[in-house]
Amino acid sequence: MIKTYRVVKQLALKAHTYTGKDGLPQTFYTMGFELTDGVNTLYAELQGASAAACPQLDTSRLYTVQAVMTCSSYLDKNGETRYENKVKIVKIAAL
Predict the structure, then answer these.
(1) Separation between Cα atoms, residue 44 and residue 51, nearest integer Å
(2) Residue 50 belongs to what H/E stretch?
(3) For labeling, which of 2, 4, 10, 39 is most exposed (least CB within 10 Å)?
(4) Which pLDDT score is estimated for 49?
(5) 48: closest CA among 4, 2, 94, 91?
(6) Cα–Cα distance, 29 to 46 (Å, whole number)
(7) What is the CA radius of gyration of the chain?
(8) Gap between the Cα atoms of 68 and 86, Å rounded
């Protein structure tokens, strides 16, 4: 999906530490964004080196956002199936 959005809110960079397949500690970065197209508002994440390198974006500008959306299901505490959408930003660039 490629669409034009305005950044409503840019969350702080988060570093997630985990143990890699080689047994050594690794760090994975994420940065969350609240985006709007004027009608719809959504939460999306930039991940990895792109998140670590992302500067503070201007909330008054429009951006072209290339993203991938996925849907997953899980069982809640009552045994009901719930669904969740996730949006991963592949690329974000100012217009």
Answers:
(1) 12
(2) helix 49-53
(3) 39
(4) 95
(5) 91
(6) 8
(7) 16
(8) 8
- 11-36, pLDDT tens digit by residue? 999 999 999 999 999 999 999 999 99
DSSP bridge pairs for 19: 25
Structure tokens at 60: 């008054």
Q: Which two tokens stand for residue 92?
A: 């974000």
**Residue 14 has which token pair?**
């988060």
- Two structure tokens written together for 38: 């004027």
Q: Which tens digit of pLDDT belongs to each residue from 33-50? A: 999 999 999 999 999 999
Strands (E), the chain: 2-10, 14-19, 25-36, 41-47, 62-75, 81-94
Q: What is the dihedral of CA 81, 34, 13, 49, to 10 degrees?
A: 80
